[in-house]
Write a structure and sequence with these properties.
Strand order of the largest sheet: 6-5-4-3-2-1-15-14-13-12-11-10-9
Helix content: 25-40%
Order of helices and strands: HEEEEEEHHEEHEEEEEEEHH
Shape: elongated
Largest sheet: 13 strands, antiparallel
Strand content: 35-45%
Length: about 325
């Protein structure tokens, strides 16, 4: 009798293992087929938005920096503007990208006019001298693109990178539609921090958007979370973040030694049908600039008037005639 009971339990366990394995394979297939496309669509949507918000940086419990900002984004990751505080008219400084260059402006206290404080042209690969993550962080795109970006990296690029290894993908408890992705990252690029057993929670019912993550790194860990609104507007397909936060922990993961906490609270966030004219220096009253070499290429060719050539040639022929005449006289 006992033997039959043990045999029955063994058969049931095997059946359960097969069921769990099948469910994991189906979930993995769904992830690979849907997630990259969903993230790309999400990013395209977020890159046509505008809004205002407050960025708060804390060290422990002390507020180190508090910044009110306004932003516009249109079309691609090289067209965005971040102004400080919340309007072009009131801003003391602004940063942005447009027409092939990255700019930083500051307002002169005497004239109240903007002047260029930094300007970098994009190279053939679409990069400036500033590192990608720094530019994203400075401009606030690390917050506005939070549903599909983790630590400055677009999720499809992270998943497809050579050093990425998926450990496990499983559904969380509670029927929320959330899944947890465990992974390692061993990048070739020394500027990208390696990650061991990182945890990323996604909402597969909402375009696989980021919910939270925890990334153990050499010097400690990085954790992040994205909060969303209660629901979608009637004409809205994607969720918009209401709050994005990042915490940087010193020491090994799990220790309560909070180094820096950064959060961004969106006060309003909406779709934006932009215009190229908004993403120019001229929009801030600053004279436009052209990339190096463009001015020379586009400069009109100076044409000398024909009458000048005629006068010069006439003078040359006159001189020759005089020389030949004197030569002939000397011969005779």
């Amino acid at each position: 009798m006992e033997f039959l009971i043990v045999l029955w339990m063994f058969v049931c366990c095997q059946a359960t293992d097969r069921q769990v394995n099948n469910e994991s394979q189906e979930l993995l297939k769904k992830f690979r087929e849907e997630a990259p496309r969903a993230w790309s669509e999400y990013r395209d949507f977020l890159l046509q938005t505008k809004g205002t918000g407050r960025r708060t940086e804390r060290s422990g419990s002390n507020v180190r920096k508090l910044t009110d900002v306004s932003f516009w984004m249109f079309g691609d990751s090289q067209k965005y503007i971040m102004v400080n505080p919340t309007s072009k008219a009131e801003a003391a400084q602004c940063r942005g990208s447009a027409a092939g260059y990255w700019f930083s402006l500051r307002r002169q206290s005497e004239s109240e006019e903007f002047v260029i404080s930094r300007l970098d042209h994009y190279n053939a690969q679409g990069e400036t001298n500033w590192q990608n993550e720094q530019r994203l962080y400075e401009a606030g795109m690390i917050f506005t693109l939070a549903p599909c970006v983790v630590q400055g990296q677009f999720l499809p690029d992270l998943i497809a990178s050579p050093g990425f290894m998926l450990r496990e993908l499983s559904a969380t408890d509670g029927g929320s539609g959330h899944v947890e992705l465990s992974f390692d990252l061993s990048p070739d690029d020394p500027n990208i921090t390696p990650i061991t057993n990182g945890k990323l929670v996604l909402s597969m019912n909402d375009h696989w958007s980021v919910i939270r993550y925890d990334l153990p790194v050499r010097w400690g860990s990085i954790s992040g979370a994205v909060d969303y609104g209660d629901g979608l507007a009637a004409d809205q397909k994607f969720q918009l973040p209401t709050r994005v936060s990042y915490e940087y922990w010193d020491g090994q993961a799990g220790q309560s030694n909070l180094g820096t906490n950064v959060e961004f609270e969106f006060r309003d966030f909406a779709a934006y049908i932009g215009d190229d004219a908004d993403f120019t220096l001229k929009a801030f009253g600053v004279t436009e600039v052209e990339p190096p070499g463009v001015a020379e290429v586009n400069a009109p060719v100076k044409q000398t008037n024909l009458w000048i050539w005629f006068v010069c040639l006439s003078f040359v022929f006159a001189v020759l005639a005089v020389v030949l005449h004197r030569r002939n006289r000397n011969v005779h």
